[in-house]
Write a structure and sequence with these properties.
single chain, mainly beta, Leucine-rich repeat, LRR (right-handed beta-alpha superhelix), 6-stranded mixed β-sheet, 7% helix, elongated, binds 2-acetamido-2-deoxy-beta-D-glucopyranose, binds calcium ion
Length: 587
């Protein structure tokens, strides 16, 4: 038992240095404090560790390899300096519940773990200066609700004067001063919301650290704006464009700090050609045309299991499309088949199944390749694109009893795809074909028919066409199997190419939008499928992610329970359901 090591001379050394005012108070108090060190008052049960100096109310240890395991009952301060341990763990000081001051300066601490300071309801001062901390755990300071000042001053490294304070003499409560010190560490970032519990925080000093002001510091930037505490400069040491800037001054980070990804959510053990979706009475359904199993599989989103479950199977023969349409609160599914004609099924909600509703008159259709359903005014239509040389793409119209063939469109051209869209406020239909460039029909109100209006030049061999809008602008995606698929933009009176994407066996170039992000999925039979992401500045799509799907034929968006999915049909493997997820790059 060697008594206090704290000498007046030590303290004088420090008072001469450049110290913040608050430190000077400490130094002064140190003088009075040291004169009060009275080792004789220690309780017998407690033996002061050899590396420490102890009094009834305080312990100071220099160069220890651990935290003292027993302590005087009334201990109010503990200092451990130049220690050799590298971490402090959960409830490590809980056996000293009367502690009011804890100083852990100039140790080799690299980590402060969760709940390290739990069980210290009276702790008012906490110093962890001049360690090698790179970060602290999120809940490192949990439970310290009384802290009012978080003070991280720029101290001289290896501060040697470690004075013990009798806090009751300082009238701490009336001063309402509390310090938490993390100064002179190598802190690059602090875990999110580390200060959130510190409701009464008045002052925080974070100087002397090297913050990385990237997305991980976003919460700190926001917190700096909202806190009532006085906070020191928080200087950024990186990344390059932030170096030397004050995080306190910033209102936003360059980066939006959000990324997205597509992750496999579920796989449906069936090959498929096309997918459609509809919602009915708060439930979301998906219809999958599965020619190899001769079914139109109907799935329903299970709100409890959070996946898509089998609901019904509409059986048929070589089903290539199951297109849903809701007319006067009734759900119909148009089932296009290669053989045995095409049919319409009607949803019977009570029996949880689809029943045959009508046969479609298909004498002119030999090889349906696509169904597109749409409304013009109050009238319902669908069109079947026929890809056989002998066939005829046909428009059908709803007449209250069913759909009946209404207009024959495009003869002899082996149509691959139909797309309905509004162009400058007028209804249009684009038909893509194997044997000519895509043609555009315009709906004539007086004739109540589609009239051929023109074509999209230099676009031979388009297998699919889809329109999409980004900020009021209208675009088309044109899928071509080999060579380049194209993105076109509607300009004054015509479409012009804005981007070409390399197709390597592509049957589908599908645009879709999730959470204000515009994507383009390009299927590929020969390599990975590519997902592109729209760049708002460059106004083109950038490569975003590769996914492997065998012989992809369609990408269909299905959103439910605020979750976004994309169904990718596969002609040679399972139908894959990817979920679009948001990745928060902040801490
Ligand atoms: C701190 O510890 C190191 C060895 O661990 C020693 O060399 C140094 O002198 C100590 N400093 C003080 C001030 O005791
Ligand atoms: C800051 O102080 C105001 C006024 O006292 C109070 O309403 C507000 O809740 C405080 N904000 C925080 C983050 O503590
Ligand atoms: C539909 O068919 C699949 C297999 O083709 C089967 O696993 C599933 O149970 C069927 N669903 C219903 C509702 O009958
Ligand atoms: Ca289509």
């Amino acid at each position: 038992m060697s008594g206090s090591q704290c000498s007046i001379s030590w303290c004088r050394v420090e008072t001469r240095g450049k110290m913040p005012p608050a430190l000077r108070i400490w130094a002064l108090l140190c003088v009075s404090l040291c004169s009060l060190c009275q080792p004789a008052l220690l309780k017998k049960a407690f033996r002061c560790p050899s590396t420490c100096s102890c009094s009834k109310e305080s312990i100071i240890c220099v160069g220890s390899s651990n935290i003292p395991r027993i302590a005087p009952n009334e201990i109010t301060s503990l200092s451990i300096v130049n220690g050799t341990f590298s971490e402090v763990r959960e409830a490590m000081f809980a056996h000293m519940p009367t502690l009011q001051l804890l100083l852990l300066n100039s140790n080799s601490l690299t980590t402060v773990r969760d709940d390290t300071f739990s069980g210290l309801p009276h702790l008012e001062y906490l110093f962890i200066e001049s360690n090698k901390l790179e970060t602290t755990s999120k809940f490192a300071f949990r439970g310290l609700r009384d802290l009012t000042h978080l003070y991280i001053p720029q101290l001289i490294k290896n501060l040697l004067c470690f004075c013990i304070f009798f806090l009751n003499m300082l009238h701490v409560h009336s001063l309402a001063m509390f310090f938490r010190s993390l100064a002179n560490n190598n802190i690059k970032f602090l875990p999110r919301d580390v200060f959130i519990d510190l409701d009464s925080l008045i002052e925080l000093d974070l100087r002397g650290n090297a913050f990385e002001c990237d997305c991980r510091a976003k919460w700190l930037m926001m917190w700096l704006k909202s806190t009532n505490a006085t906070v020191s400069d928080v200087m950024c040491a990186g990344p390059d464009d932030m170096k030397g800037k004050r995080l306190n001054d910033m209102n936003s980070l360059h980066n939006e700090c959000i990324s997205t990804d597509f992750v496999l959510h579920q796989s449906v053990a069936s090959e498929s050609l096309s997918v459609d979706t509809f919602s009915f009475k708060n439930d979301v359904y998906v219809t999958i045309a599965a020619p190899s199993s001769d079914t139109c599989m109907v799935l329903q989103w299970d709100h409890i299991e959070m996946n898509f479950r089998t609901y019904d199977n509409i059986t048929g023969q070589s089903i290539v499309g199951c297109k849903s349409v809701i007319i006067q609160e009734e759900v119909y599914v148009i089932v296009a088949q290669l053989f045995g004609g095409s049919h319409i099924y009607k949803f019977d909600d009570d029996q949880s199944r689809f029943n045959k509703f009508q046969d479609i008159e298909v004498s002119k259709i030999s090889k349906p390749n696509d169904i597109e359903a749409f409304q013009i005014g109050t009238d319902w239509f669908f069109v079947i694109a026929d890809s056989s040389k002998a066939g005829l793409s046909t428009l059908y119209k709803w007449n209250d009893n069913g759909f009946y063939s209404y207009q024959s469109l495009h003869e002899w051209f082996r149509d691959t795809d139909a797309e309905f869209l509004n162009l400058d406020g007028k209804a249009h239909l684009i038909l893509a074909s194997r044997s000519q460039v895509p043609v555009i029909y315009q709906w004539s109100r007086s004739n109540q028919k589609f009239i051929l209006q023109g074509d999209i030049p230099n676009m031979e061999d388009v297998v699919a066409v889809t329109h999409f809008r980004i900020k009021e602008e209208l675009y088309l995606s044109m899928t071509r199997y080999i060579g380049d698929s194209k993105v076109l933009k509607w300009g004054p009176k015509q479409f012009s190419e804005i981007q070409a994407v390399p197709s390597r066996g592509s049957m589908i170039l599908q645009p879709f939008t999730f959470k204000d992000r515009h994507y383009l999925a390009l299927g590929s039979d020969y390599t990975f499928s590519q997902i592109y992401l729209w760049d708002d500045e460059k106004k083109i799509f950038d490569r975003f992610k590769e996914v492997y799907i065998q012989a992809p034929r369609s990408f269909t968006v299905v959103s439910t329970d605020r979750r976004d999915f994309i169904f990718s049909s596969s002609f040679k493997g399972n139908t894959q359901i990817f979920e679009h997820i948001i990745i928060d790059l902040t801490l």
